[in-house]
Amino acid sequence: MKSEYNNIEVDLSSADNVFCDSVDAINWAYDAGLNTKSIIKTNSPALAWEKNKNVFRLDSKWDINQMKQFQSTIGDLSKAVFDSVKTINGVFHEEALCVSMVTVEFQRLLFKASCLTRDDVSNPVLFIRVEGDGGPNGNNMNPPWDRIFKDNKKFNIITYQQEKEWNVLNTESVPWYRKIRVAGVETLIYRILLKITNFLPKNLFKKKVFVYRENELVIEVATKLALRGVKINSIRSGKKSKLEKSDSFFLIKNKIDSIIRKRVKDWVIPEIASRCEQIFFENLEKRINLFFENRAKWNEAVDQIRVEKGVLLTNHPSGVQGYAITSLCREKKVPVITAQHGVTPEISKYYDEIEYGSDPNTCDCYLAYNETSANIAQNSHFSIGKSFVAGISLRHLRMSSTGRAANKIFPLVYISTNIYKGNLGPFISALTDYDRSIKEKELIEKVFSRLSYNVRYKTYPEDNRRYPDVDPVFNIVDCLPNVELFIDKVDMRYLYGEHRIVMTSRATSTLGWAIMSKKPVVFINWKENSPLTSEAESFFEKGLFLFNDDECDFHERLRYFLSKPIFEIERLWGLKKKDRQDMVNHLFSAYSSDAGKRSARMIINNFLT
What pTM value is reported for the model? Predict the structure, then answer.
């Protein structure tokens, strides 16, 4: 078989050192002549679960303390890089955010590189990569070994073509009445008005709002604005204008080179340190160029907003394109209003890792669900905007009217948030992907399998594929008679009416929807994996059913509680009503209605006068 790396013939039978993250790919290679005694090195949970004594976990060298040290320093690293770049004259604020973003994303590659030994980078290596559908962001199923091993002349690549289908989040299986119930009348009005106003004369409206990205609160606010005589428009990129390209990359490189060099030196062997630095700056140059390409692409659209004296209303304007648009808006004095898209900063202990993406970093005003979110966002190290407490969206509030499941097949639903890091996700954890899979496996075997009633295991609707193989946890679930493996890529908001008890874990935005359903919520606080802040933990202890995984007899205590009659759990939930309202007010929504109306009034009074 010919190597795709250097076009030479590869004798699979003599390949001793194989890097691969797919069970199917390894089995294919065995059929093609790979020696069954070859050492297989991987970060894939699925391969690590295989009963193959020759499979070696690359991340096995990491313990929780090392992972904590690595993860806990990412936030400070992103701030140090940002502060250094900001001292360069002429560099955009959003351009500096781009550098922080690339720095944080680079930690995934650095982690993979840190798993390598001197033998790995000097001896012959065969990399079996997987080609296949990886989702909207393309194929990200393979570690970047081809980039890291570039200087190893004994490195070879062969490719396994995967034929597995991959689906993304959709509503095809959701009945139309559920869609309407969740979306609400404001969404229908919004869609109609977007179409109608395009045919009306521009001078008919004195006040205009332009929507870049949508979310639940953006749609609600835009609808309320439209009903008060404000024209709402969606914007699209135009032709590239002659926007001067910056040569700032070289200035940035010189400014942060020592910071990146130290970070790399702290975690990888000297033999590949310079290569890792080179990869970082290759990534950075591409992103900086893309930032300016997007500025050119969106310049005309932002000019239109400026000429028409409008406001940009958007969901989470992070990423290169979002940074480009908001930098143009700041330059042309176009107000930017962003709306919170999920409860996370209020409850996540490890939020500082992704703080560079906080909404007030790129806007004039941030519409927050609650005071806690408003304060965290406004006080972000990167912030330039102010916060306004609007309350949570109507879609969230409608979760409480999804129906009462009195006699359903699955009284308990476990909403899994077990999505692996792979080559895409942030760390926000002190556990490797393998360790995460073991935690999930133990929960299923020691708790769910021992309950006397049926449980639905709702998988995370992952859009972008982390690993080629099916999560091995799913195979465990699939074998249990009382646990249903629900793998349809349907958002949980359409399913609350089918269950009486909701259970989830990890400090993610999933919890906001669960709490607003007003059904009893059981929450697992994994202390090493997206854990709660100490403040959130204190509120959760009183307001919902909280179980910390580091407590004695965790699984037994959880199983004992879930074994109570469902009506008893519902009764105990009712006793927490007052404490739960305090929790909701502080961490979820400051108001019980009118977020759109409240925000629309503020925008008209402050930005559309």
Answer: 0.94
